[in-house]
Automatic annotation (TrEMBL):
<feature type="domain" description="3-dehydroquinate synthase C-terminal">
    <location>
        <begin position="195"/>
        <end position="339"/>
    </location>
</feature>
<dbReference type="GO" id="GO:0046872">
    <property type="term" value="F:metal ion binding"/>
</dbReference>
<dbReference type="InterPro" id="IPR035872">
    <property type="entry name" value="EEVS-like"/>
</dbReference>
<keyword id="KW-0547">Nucleotide-binding</keyword>
<protein>
    <submittedName>
        <fullName>2-epi-5-epi-valiolone synthase</fullName>
    </submittedName>
</protein>
<dbReference type="InterPro" id="IPR056179">
    <property type="entry name" value="DHQS_C"/>
</dbReference>
<dbReference type="Pfam" id="PF24621">
    <property type="entry name" value="DHQS_C"/>
</dbReference>
<keyword id="KW-0479">Metal-binding</keyword>
<dbReference type="InterPro" id="IPR050071">
    <property type="entry name" value="Dehydroquinate_synthase"/>
</dbReference>
<dbReference type="Pfam" id="PF01761">
    <property type="entry name" value="DHQ_synthase"/>
</dbReference>
<keyword id="KW-0456">Lyase</keyword>
<dbReference type="GO" id="GO:0017000">
    <property type="term" value="P:antibiotic biosynthetic process"/>
</dbReference>
<feature type="compositionally biased region" description="Low complexity">
    <location>
        <begin position="415"/>
        <end position="476"/>
    </location>
</feature>
<dbReference type="GO" id="GO:0003856">
    <property type="term" value="F:3-dehydroquinate synthase activity"/>
</dbReference>
<keyword id="KW-0520">NAD</keyword>
<dbReference type="GO" id="GO:0000166">
    <property type="term" value="F:nucleotide binding"/>
</dbReference>
<feature type="region of interest" description="Disordered">
    <location>
        <begin position="400"/>
        <end position="501"/>
    </location>
</feature>
Length: 512
């Protein structure tokens, strides 16, 4: 809901307009939003006498009947629009199909679309609502942990475009967000870990009480999907609810004064400095939660080296990631990743590193004064620390699969990662499964023996393992040799965290 007040005055050669728009949007915690006994959602639609629901195909299969029964019970005819699953569906084409469904449905002014799903669905359908008639209302029901504690806390909506993550988007607040953690009971563990990493992020920089709870109940929280699986201990669920409530509150307090992301020193950027570059280096790429955990663990080691974190605090952070099955290191998190990641993030953050470092644990300081050489030196120290943890610092289920991308993905190479960065003269981000341990990019081709990289347009291309310079995940901008320069203007002026995650490198798909 918004309320604009403005003044118009005459100037010597024109007019000046000044105004502000009041934003109001609400969150409600609900258990079992589609339980027949729960009338809240039905009330929202009583006035309209019908409902258009957008969800993805997985959610339609899992919850379609329950949603249908719910609205039948309340005598509200429901129409479903089921969109494809995965990052490849985060496109303008998917958005247009949602708009077509709105037209077919004949959505009328102020009638809200019901959007049910993970961050992907709420981003795409939310953006469809932002565009449709310039502004269509929506009600948001996040169903993943990322959705519940991260994506749905913001008002950013977007689709990927032209190889770039979230390139087209808007700030568009839903009229309601219903936070129903009971959806977590069907969420795969790997997706729970993704969200867990974001809660570690916020708590280690802003909320020691939440960090302590994560630390105390880590394995149980993940195993029971935050106390939502059948037979979970009610006390655990109470703890889970409390810590999620606190984490969301903290996120809202930190981010709402900066809704349009004007300020660049952002606590919630912890873990999102080198990960945007690194996340897409392996083939298949890392899950977001693992990429940011590596970045956070390494940043904690930088904090230790600077005396900003004690040894005990540092060990607590790394140990928590490790116990959660999250990664704390990766073979491709190397000097190159540090150098290229730094170069990319400096552009996004207006020339300064603005590195959020937990210091002391539970609060945060920003540091700018690292040189790339400092960073690389500490990386060696970090690798020594990481090696001491379970799995040598590797995570569990660390790589994306079809549930994230919407497409079949190749099995990770034998040692679980692509062997080396591509070093193309023209395009520096192509990564391929170079059987020789590296890809030798020339003019945008990666020449891994078995490597085929993949086009955003869905080609699998590679007899000889070429990556598609234009449509593939080699970066589309021409860079000087050894330099990575694809997205200079990616997000200069703001640096939304979600965009930071991936804007530094183009969206990619992995085709077999
Ligand atoms: N707007 C923002 O501020 C913001 C913040 C963070 C992330 N994002 C965006 O969110 C997207 C990632 O979202 P995500 O991590 O929620 O993943 P997602 O929406 O892709 O969902 C992950 C998988 O879980 C399935 N799923 C969803 N809910 C389920 C449930 N309750 N039970 C079983 N399966 C379920 C989905 O069908 C999908 O296969 C990215 O595109 C990212 O850019 C946006
Ligand atoms: Zn993130």
């Amino acid at each position: 809901m918004s309320d604009m007040s403005a003044t118009v005055s005459k100037t010597p050669n024109g007019f000046a307009v000044a105004g502000y728009e009041k934003l109001e949007y609400n969150f409600a915690f609900v258990e079992g939003i589609f339980n027949l006994s729960n009338g809240q959602m039905a009330q929202c639609y009583e006035k309209w006498g019908r409902v258009l629901t957008v969800l993805d195909e997985n959610m339609k299969n899992l919850y379609g009947d329950a949603i249908q029964n719910y609205f039948d019970h309340y005598n509200l005819p429901v129409t479903f629009h089921a969109m494809p699953v995965g990052e490849t569906a985060k496109s303008i084409e998917t958005l247009l199909k949602i708009c077509d469904s709105m037209t077919k449905f004949g959505i009328i002014r102020k009638e809200p679309v019901l959007v049910v799903g993970g961050g992907l669905v709420t981003d795409v359908a939310g953006f469809a609502c932002a565009c449709y008639r310039r502004n269509t209302n929506f009600i948001r029901v996040p169903t993943t942990l990322i959705g519940l504690i991260d994506a749905s806390v913001s008002i950013k909506v977007a689709v990927n475009y032209g190889n770039y993550k979230n390139r087209l988007g808007a700030y568009h607040a839903p009229i309601w967000t219903f936070l129903d953690f009971s959806f977590l009971k069907t969420l795969p563990t790997a997706q729970v870990r993704n969200g867990f990493a974001e809660i570690i992020k916020i708590s280690s920089c802003a909320d020691i009480k939440t960090f302590n709870s994560l630390d105390k109940y880590c394995e149980k929280l993940i195993e029971t999907r935050f106390g939502r699986t059948e037979g979970s201990d009610p006390e655990l669920r109470r703890v889970a609810d409390e810590l999620c409530y606190d984490a969301i509150f903290e996120m809202l307090k930190l981010e709402t004064p900066n809704l349009h992301e004007i300020m660049l020193d952002r606590v919630i950027a912890y873990g999102h400095t080198w990960s945007p570059f690194h996340e897409l280096q392996p083939n298949p790429p890392l899950r977001h939660g693992h990429a940011i955990s590596i970045d956070m663990a390494y940043t904690a080691t930088l904090g230790l080296d600077r005396g900003m974190l004690s040894q005990e605090e540092h060990a607590r952070i790394l140990n928590l990631f490790s116990r959660a099955g999250l990664s704390i290191d990766h073979p491709l998190y190397d000097d190159t990743a540090i150098e290229k990641g730094t170069e990319a993030i400096l552009k996004t953050r207006d020339g300064a590193l603005r590195l959020a470092v937990p210091s002391p644990l539970g609060s945060c300081e920003f540091v700018n004064e690292f040189t790339v050489q400092d960073l690389q030196k500490v990386l060696r120290l970090h690798k020594k620390h990481a090696a001491k943890y379970a799995r040598g610092g590797d995570g569990l289920e660390a790589y994306v699969d079809a549930s994230d991308t919407g497409e079949p993905t190749p099995a990770p190479s034998s040692n679980g990662h692509a062997n080396g960065h591509a070093n193309g003269n023209g395009y520096t981000n192509g990564h391929s499964n170079g059987a020789n341990g590296h890809s030798n990019g020339v003019n945008g081709h990666s020449n891994g023996l078995n490597g085929h990289s993949n086009g955003v347009n869905g080609h699998s291309n590679g007899v000889n393992g070429h990556s598609n310079g234009v449509n593939g995940h080699s970066n589309g901008a021409k860079a000087a040799a050894g330099k990575r320069a694809p997205v200079q203007d990616a997000h200069q002026e703001n640096g939304g965290i979600d965009d930071l995650v991936n804007e530094a490198v183009p969206v990619q798909r992995v085709n077999v």
